[in-house]
Amino acid sequence: MNAPNNGSTLGGVLTSYSPDQVSRLVPDALGDALERGEIVHFPRCPIELPGEADLKFLRDDLAAHLRNKNVSYHPETDSIPGLKSDPARTERAQKILKQHAARVEAFLTRTMPTLTRDWTIGTSSFRPIQEKGRNLSAHASNELVHIDAGAYGPTYGDRVLRFFVNVNPIEDRVWATRGTFPQLYARFGRAARITPDTRRHASLERGALDNLRTGFLRTLAAVGLPQAMLIDSSPYDRVMRQFHNYMKDEPAFRDDTSSEVEIRFTPFSAWMVLTDMVSHASLAGQYALVNTFQLRLASCRLPELAPYRILSTA
Ligand SMILES: [Fe+2]
Fold first, then answer.
1. What is the distance between the alpha carbons of residues 121 and 124, in angstroms, rounded to a whole number?
2. From CA 277, how far away is CA 183, in angstroms rounded?
3. Which end of the chain is more exposed for a tag (fewer CB within 10 A), N or C?
4. CA–centroid distance, residue 143 to ligand 1 (Å)
């Protein structure tokens, strides 16, 4: 694990990789770092970014046309549903985000051949809004430290990977973390009632009701309501949602910042993290590219560290 071409670690939270270290990476080294719960950080983004004119277009020309808080390219429909704009503007945004997605995907499959096996490629998004002081509800707020529970329907224990680039030319993007899922589970699992002896159902296996729900939602999806699958769930995903909500709602956790570490990501730096593994909050910053992937639990090289295994056995 400590091969000379590994990055330099800051307090076990964040590991930085210089361009030279990236060029000499052993296959799967980055994936193992992610699975151990490290934020993998690139002071210089390891992939080519959209040109300055395209970045300026994303930063300056989209804000007035937003339907949602993000502009997201969806590969499954080859479209950007969040943009309400004229065809030329939509087409340009789509082209930029799609090209960026292809570069991120090529980098990840090259450096992490095992962890990316059978993955599902999610959205390629641009976040145009200043994170600080957005006044969202607690459950939607990025400013409160949390771990992610599956955002696009049930994961059944699969992992959530996000790859970020700060494309603000002058302002840092500021994060906070309070450690990894295993650390937080050991400290707060019982209080959050997610341990097998405190949660409603000890088993994470899907029951008859889960199968019934999934069957019903599949029928709806088959008759033209694909978004029905987004409200599907599983015992594992409900437990993760419960922990996510505990972290944002419970004052004893929410307001105790004693274990918090602040991280500043400078302009044009990049970082990636398993967001179901590492607690995080986005405290400040504007303009980021964010690519989301669902990784198979079966493709993990260190599955004993994954939340599913920990929740199953502890
Ligand atoms: Fe999150």
1. 9
2. 10
3. N
4. 9
Contacts of residue 264, Cβ cutoff 8 Å, sequence gap at least 6:
172, 173, 174, 175
Q: What is the DSSP letter of 125?
A: E
The two tokens of residue 23 are 């060029």
- CA–centroid distance for 314 within its chain: 25
Kindly give the distance from the C-alpha atom of residue 159 to the centroid of ligand 1, in angstroms, as a whole number: 13
pLDDT digits (tens, 9 = 90+) for 54-69: 999 999 988 777 777 7
Å from CA of 53 to ligand 1 middle: 29
Encode pLDDT of 64-109 as tens digits: 777 777 899 999 899 998 788 788 999 999 999 999 999 999 999 9
Ligand 1 geometric centre to CA of 241 (Å): 12
Distance 280 CA to ligand 1 centre (A): 6
